[in-house]
Specification:
It is a single chain. The strands form 3 sheets. This protein has a 4-stranded mixed sheet, with helices on one face. The chain is mainly alpha-helical and 508 residues long.
Length: 508
């Protein structure tokens, strides 16, 4: 067979991921916080983008009040018509003095002096003018004290020389949010050029600060410091604190032998341990946890169905400034600048369309989830149906990967609480009677209820739970029950039986 060169024409199709398409896919999986940050960056980069801020009706309301003011009855305002009142005039009108009306009045300039009077008037005036900006004196007074500030105050009041005070400050810098010392003493001594014994002595002083337990290097030392302050660190308690791993395993028999106490004494010691604070520094953690903002809101409609709406607070409002584009483009003559403006306009239009498509996609997916999980919204978690991404994707005519991106880090506000969209997608557990499958989340709830209702004399093993679930129509394996139980941080039947017996003996 002879080899010869020849030309051939072939036609093929391929999917090309353009930057705009990649941006649209990325926007789907962003949370509203990440989306706001992304839009801020785009507005900074693109001069044709701007935010559509909600209209501020405060000015119009003020204008309406100003217009309505002359129509008020003059008899209703005893101060109307006066531009300035003296103390004597007010006293005559009220038939009393200012001191009687305002017992906390700072007084006149003769009693306080001109400087302090000016400060008082300035503060009062600024409070009045800043009320529209949310000024609140209570917010200033209620500022939370941080752990560093609390420790710093005690260091300043402690009997320390300047060198020891410097070491105490370095130790305070090594505290984590729970109040534990995470710094190495030898490193602090080397860095400050101090003696190791001096650093250890300063640490001992710092460990007496309030709340007791600060500057501990581990949990055992934190508990020991608190027990020592209560004069309860006897040899038996020292042995218990030194063997916290046995306490975590609920190995009470070994603990009784190590501590040399009987069961009653051990129960008393455990009660004292439970009363301690394992993380004393958390009382000064000033950061408040961020509340979850739902992307979708579901409420009952008048016709008995469910109304699904997007949360307007999570939807960014972005506009394309076409007026600015027309004004600037008419004065641009350089081709590079024209290309830049054209690119900015294209990107701005694409971003607004992508945001609109993102909102429609989230609403479409959420509406299908509500339709699929109607029984859950009405009756609770026991009626949560098994659901996967493919089922929702086929129902709304989208790809499974798109549904996966939409449900990532998105939350839905329902009459039963706030849930992540991924919560409604659960595995399917077959029915023992050949009927409809059960949701894994519903089975978890059943297992938890069974364990919560068990009696101390009849603690359910995993095999017993399997038998009870099969009687109720759930076909589940023992290892699956064990996995669900461990996932809910529920100890084994042996540990539960031992703990319930100990609590029963303590209650006698």
């Amino acid at each position: 067979m002879a080899l010869a060169a020849k030309l051939q024409l072939r036609q093929s199709q391929s999917l090309v991921m353009t930057p705009q398409l990649m941006q649209s896919i990325r926007l789907l999986q962003l949370t509203h916080v990440e989306l706001e940050r992304f839009i801020d960056e785009e507005i900074e980069r693109n001069p044709l983008l701007e935010r559509a801020e909600p209209q501020d009706d405060a000015a119009s309301d003020q204008a309406q009040k100003s217009e309505a003011a002359p129509e008020r009855d003059s008899a209703g305002d005893w101060f109307e018509g006066e531009t300035e009142w003296s103390a004597e005039a007010i006293s005559q009108k009220l038939d009393s003095s200012l001191e009687n009306l305002f017992p906390d009045d700072p007084g006149t300039s003769e009693r306080l002096g001109p400087d302090l009077t000016a400060q008082w008037k300035s503060a009062a005036g600024s409070a009045g003018t800043a009320s529209s900006e949310g000024f609140d004196v209570g917010d200033m007074a209620a500022a939370a004290v941080t752990l560093r500030e609390h420790v710093g105050e005690q260091i300043a009041l402690a009997s320390l020389n300047p060198g020891e005070r410097l070491i105490a400050g370095e130790l305070a810098e090594g505290l984590d949010e729970a109040g534990y010392l995470r710094a190495d003493l030898s490193d602090i001594a080397a860095r400050l050029g101090a003696d190791g014994a001096m650093v250890a002595r300063v640490l001992g002083i710092c460990q007496t600060f309030e709340p007791v337990g600060l500057f501990a290097r581990d949990l055992a030392e934190c508990l020991s410091l608190q027990l020592q302050s209560r004069d309860r660190l006897d040899p038996a308690m020292k042995a218990l604190v030194a063997n916290l791993e046995l306490l975590a395993r609920r190995d009470f028999q070994t603990l009784k032998r190590i501590c040399g106490v009987d069961e009653e004494d051990l129960l008393d010691m455990l009660a004292e341990i439970r009363a301690l604070d394992p993380r004393p520094g958390l009382a000064f953690s000033g950061g408040a946890s961020d509340a979850i903002v739902a992307d979708v809101e579901v409420r009952a409609a008048n016709d008995g169905s469910w109304a699904v709406e997007l949360n307007a607070d999570t939807l960014p409002r972005v506009l394309v400034d076409n007026v600015y584009f027309a004004r600037v483009s008419s004065h641009v003559k350089d081709q590079a600048e024209k290309d830049f403006l054209a690119e900015c306009l294209q990107n701005a239009n694409w971003l607004t369309r992508s945001l609109d498509q993102r909102a429609k996609t989230i609403l479409k997916v959420a509406s299908e989830i509500v339709r699929q999980q109607d029984a859950f919204l009405v009756h609770g978690v026991r009626h949560l149906k098994p659901l996967n991404l493919r089922t929702v994707a086929d129902a709304i005519g989208m790809h499974e990967s798109t549904v996966s991106r939409v449900t990532a880090n998105k939350y839905m506000l329902t009459p039963r609480g706030v849930f992540e969209l991924r919560y409604f997608f659960t595995a399917s557990i077959a029915s023992a009677e050949g009927g409809e499958a059960h949701s894994s989340e519903a089975v978890r709830d059943r297992i938890k209820q069974m364990i919560d209702e068990e009696k101390p004399s009849d603690v359910l093993s995993d095999d017993a739970i399997v038998d009870m679930l099969k009687e109720s129509g759930v076909d589940i394996a023992r290892r699956t029950v064990a996995k669900y139980r461990e996932g809910m941080n529920i100890p084994s039947s042996v540990q539960r039986r031992r703990e319930k017996r100990a609590l029963a003996n303590a209650g006698r």
